[in-house]
Specification:
Number of strands of chain A: 20
Structural class of chain A: alpha/beta
Radius of gyration of chain B: 20 Å
CATH superfamily of the largest domain in chain A: P-loop containing nucleotide triphosphate hydrolases
Strand content of chain B: under 5%
Number of domains of chain A: 2
Shape of chain B: globular
Strand content of chain A: 25-35%
Strand order of the largest sheet of chain A: 5-6-7-3-8-9
Number of domains of chain B: 1
Distance between the termini of chain B: 38 Å
Radius of gyration of chain A: 26 Å
Order of helices and strands of chain A: EHEEHEEHHHEHEHEEHHEEEEEEEEEEE
Shape of chain A: elongated
Structural class of chain B: mainly alpha
CATH architecture of the largest domain in chain A: 3-Layer(aba) Sandwich
Number of helices of chain B: 11
CATH class of the largest domain in chain A: Alpha Beta
Oligomer: heterodimer
Amino acid sequence: MSEIILDVKNVSKSFRLHENKKDSLKETLSSVFSAGASSPELFHALTDISFSLEQGEVLGIIGKNGAGKSTLLKILSGVTFPDEGEINFYGKSVSVLDVGAGFHPELTGRENVYLSATLYGLSKKEIEAKFESIVDFSGVRAFIDEPVKAYSSGMYLRLAFSVVIALDADILMFDEVLYFGDDEFRFKSKRSITELCGNGKTIILANHDYDFLMKVCDRIILLNEGKIENTFNLKTEREKLSDYLSDRLDIIQQTQAKPVPSVYQVDDVMKWENISIKGIAINSIPSEAVTIYSDNETVIEVEYELHNTDVRYDFSLMFTDEKADIILSASTIDPRKIDFVQRTGSNTMRYVIPKNYFNSGTLLLTLIVIMDMNELVVRYKNVKKITIERLNRSANNLMGMQRVGLLYADFDWKHN
Amino acid sequence: MSLPLYKSITKKNESLLTYLGEVWKSHALIVTFAQRDLKIQYAQTYLGVFWSFIQPLTALLIFHFFFQRVIHINLHVPYSVFACTGMMGWFFFTQLIGQSGTALMHNQQLIKKIQFPRLVLPLAKAINGLVEFSVMLILLVVLMLITGCPFSAKIFYLPLVVVANVVVGLSVGIWLSALTIRFRDMHHLIPFLIGFGIWITPVFYPATMVPDNFSVIYYFHPIANIIALYRWIFIGWQIDFIQVATSFSISVFMLITGLIYFIRNEKFIADYL
C-alpha cells in the first residue's frame, strides 16, 4: 500500500455575503460604533471536507457549478485559506487554476517562462536547467524571443502549460484547464495529464470533462453544496457511479454542457497518433474567424505532419450555415478526384474555391480526417468561422435586384 | 506515514520572523517582479529610460523658476542642488507609498491564481523605486559638479540614509497596501497624501523658513527628516539628531505594526479582491 501524500482534515470555509459592502471605511466605522451590530450572513462554501490521497492516486472532483470545486482547489493551492481544518502535504505540489497565470503580454516568451517558473518557486539555476525542455515541449521555439502578445492563444497556452509540466511536482492540481486553447493543445495537455497519471504523480482534477475523468481517475468525489456527497472508487465502483449519476442527470448534463472558449471541439482524439494537424489556414490566415472576399479565389490549406506513411489519410470539408445545415461538402476520398503522395514529415493539402462562387454570408467549416479510406480519425467541428463579403459591392446589385442566397455561382450559361 | 511533511495549510498565521524568512526565500521573485515592471514600464516607448530623467528635470526647472525668479530664496547653496536633494527623498517616498500601496490591487489576477508571499509585491515596487532614485542621484551629482559644490566624506553615510528612506516609505506603503484591500477608500487617500504632502514637506523650500512654533511637526514627519539627512550629506546643513531619531523610531514602529497587520490579512487577501 502506498503512503499518504495529501491529507485534508475537516476543512470548512465560508464567505461573508455582504463583505463587499463592508469594503468602505464608513461601514466598518459605523459597525465599530454601533453596539451589537448584526452578524453578517454566511455562505458556507465548504463544510467539513476530509479525504486523503495516496501517492500516485488520481482524484476527480465533480459537482454542479457552485458546489465548491473551485474553492476547494483554491484552498489546496494556498491562494486562499480555510476557516477551519488542516491540510498536510507530504510532497511538492503545484496547482494550475489558470494556464498562463503570471504571464505578461509585453514580455517575451523567454521572460515569461522565467517569471512564471519563479512564481512557482523555481530558482534561476533550476529554470536554466529546464529551459530547453520547456521550450521543446511548448513547440514555440521560433517565437521564444517575441512578446507573447504576438502569440496565438494556442502558442501562449502551450508555453504556459510547458512550465507547469517542467516543475516536476509530486502533486498536481488542475482546475478546468483542459478547455483552453486549440484542439491540438487540448489533446496534448490531456495526453500529458494521462502520462503524468501513469508516472506515479498524484493528481487532482476538478473539471467538467466527465469522460476524461472516467478514463484517468482512480477515485471520484462528488461535491454538492460544499459537502462531499459521495466518493466512488473507480476500480471497484465504476458501475455504481454511473448508476448514481443516472439519477443525478443534472450533474452529468452540466458536466457535459461545457463552456468551450474556442469555437471547435474534437470528437475523438485517441486515434490521433500518427498524424498531427499543424494548422488550418484560409487564404494563409490561421485565425479562427476569417473574412474572405468572394470576388477572389479562396484557398483552404491544411498543414499536417505524418510520422509514417503506412496508411493514407484523407480530408473532408463541410461548410455549414449557422443553422448547421450543410451548404457545401468536398472530400479527397472521391477516387477519381485526386491522387496524391503523402510523405513523412510536413504535408499541405489545399482546396481551392474559385472566385465568384459564394455570394455573402457566414459559413462554419468542419474538417474531418479519415484514415485508410474508412476510419474517422478526427473531426474538427466548426474549426473556422468564415465571413464572406464581396469587394465589389456594385456587382451585388444586378439590375436593381440583390444577389440572394449564400451561393451565387457564375457557371456557364448556354443558350439555344 | 513515513513521507516527510512538506507543507501544512491552516488559517493560523505565521510569526513575523517565519514570514519574513519565507519572503527572504522568495528574493528571486522580488527581483523578477521588479525586472518585469521595469521592462513593461519602458516597453514600446521610444525614449525609454530617459522618461525617468525628464520628469525630475521638469520639476526642477519649475521649482527653479518659482523660487529663483518669482520668489527669491537665498540659500547660500545653488538652488537646483538644494531642490534636487529634497526631490530625491520625496520622490522616492511617494514612489514607495504610491506603488507599494497599490501593488496588491494591480496584481489581483496573480494573487487569485498563484500562491506566493504577497509581501513580495510591495517589496518589488520598492526595488523599482530604487532605480528612479538612482536617476535622481545621478542628476544631483551632475548638478553638484556643474555648480562646483564640494562633496563631503559624509557621502559614505548615503547607503544608510537610503535604507532609512526605504523604511520610512514602506512603513506607510505596507499599511496602505494591506488596508486598500479591505477598504477601497485608501485608494483615494494615496494621491491625496502625495498631492498635499509635498506642501508640508520641505522639498522645494528649506525647513528653516517654517516659523518655529510649527516646526514641532517635524518630530512626527519622517520624510522631512530623511530629506534633512540628504541635505546634511550633500550640502552640509545641520540636523537635529534627536528629532531625526524620534521620527525614525515612529517609522520603525509603523513598519513593524504594518507588517503584522499585513500578515494577519495575508491569507485572506484573495477573498477580498
